[in-house]
Amino acid sequence: MRILSKRQVKELVLYSPQHIARLEKAGSFPTRVQLGPNRVGWVEAEVLDWLNERLAQR
């Protein structure tokens, strides 16, 4: 399992961190994992699954 940083997720999905946070809050994006008091990450497989769903919908 690989954990992606905020920067890596931003580069992968091409959304701003603010938009990613809005999607998370709405339940439309994989939720972050709290790694420490000031560090979060996303499970790479979940983010890639989310991207694949978007590709399948086009």
Automatic annotation (TrEMBL):
InterPro entries noted in UniProt: AlpA
Domain of life: Bacteria
Family annotation (Pfam families): Phage_AlpA
Name of this chain's protein: Prophage CP4-57 regulatory protein (AlpA)
Organism: Octadecabacter ascidiaceicola
